[in-house]
Write the structure tokens for this entry.
Amino acid sequence: SGTYDSTKSSNSGYQVMFNESGYMYILRRNSQRFDLTKGRVVPAADCYHRATLNFDGVFAQYFYPKNGNGNWSVVWSEPENICVNIGGGLGSGACGYNSICTLDSDRRPRCACPKGYSLLDENDRYGSCKPDFELSCWGGGQGYNKELFDFHEVKNIDWPQSDYERFKNYNEVHCCFKKLPLSNGMTDSRITSKAFIKYKNKGDDPPSVPRPPDHEDKKKRKMMNATGSVLLGSSVFVNFAMVCAVVLGFFFIYKKKWIRNSPGDGTVETNLRCFSYKALEEATDNFKEEVGRGSFGIVYKGVIQTTRQVLLQLQSRNWIVFQDGEREFKNEVFVISQTHHKNLVRLLGFCDEGLNRLLVYEFLNNGTLASFLFGNLKPSWNLRTNIAFQIARGLLYLHEDCSSQIILYSYKRTEGYVAPEWFRNSTITAKVDVYSFGFLLLEIISCRKSFDIEMGEEYAILTDWAFDCYRNGKLDDLVEGDMEAIDK
């Protein structure tokens, strides 16, 4: 308010005064006054006056005509616009996450969800918004089908705390991206930026076809943790095998090896078995049982040789068409076939027929790392630390002990797991895996997902909450109630 003076206590605020004329001011200890009411006030003889401190910290003065003709109107408020003056980089802002704040005529915030979003809790008008469709920015999901989605242009809007990367002097073609969840959303005439919000077109669901489709109907499914795909482990140590093995089918090779075969001939110089597409189609009963989706494709369960269960990763059509898929697929198969580690699930074979490219892995049936960490029963601290150590040793093997260095690209192609280098045209090194491993390590320690909106806005983003725990000297909160972990 301008009334606090650390060097002259006589100049500090002493009393808040609200006189009969409708003026509000702060009386200082030296009898000077600091005016809160700005400009002319409607006389108290004609109007009722009141001042309130709202739940969001906005202090406002209102007046109401004594003749009863009218509504409560704002004389002044502090701050003047809570939408743009809430300040601070933590939290969701005046409204919830993914919401847009607009100042109403009564100087109160009005929260609205963007097109294609709806309130997480319909009874909380200031709460967070959730997308009405499954988000996907990468190949293998619905996100790459342009016919299913459209963009809604909104002017004079910004989420200042949610920039994934910021560029100056760029046009709409090079617009910056925002990372979810969006926070501090606001719209105001003084904001010069505009946003393009992706939403799903109603009634444009992709068709269902018997062969593995390019765009499948939207399904409710669990996001597989640790690698961006699904692979199952038979023990605690084999859980790490799940983490690394299928990801090997999802990465780009940093130091690529050229395959000596001519492109498109469907063969790779390895000892792996080459399956026909028809054989794998029969093995999966026409790709009937989908067990997960990853960054570069879909994973199906099947049976070969009558009794042997396998996992098949179907490469994304988008990745095949736009990223020189033929050469990349052969390099991928070649390098995976050269890896030998006790915690890597074995690649049994592959299929390369035209645009049909699949990797065939052995199937282990002891559950996913996600279900292991986030189930009802929290695994012991010793088991979790063993998993973390095994993953770290596996990364060391891939980074330093393979004939060609292998960079996993990221465990999950989810915002937050992907290192910033991928968006800055920077040199990619093994450090990007270490960055991603840090997020996974937090999940292992806390047995919490990296983003869980059901935890409440203050705790929804695991990394933000972990930083708050560190800053406040309360790291034990990350393993709250886990006495085994605390005692260690």
Summary: The chain has four domains: 9-78, 100-200, 236-362, 372-487.
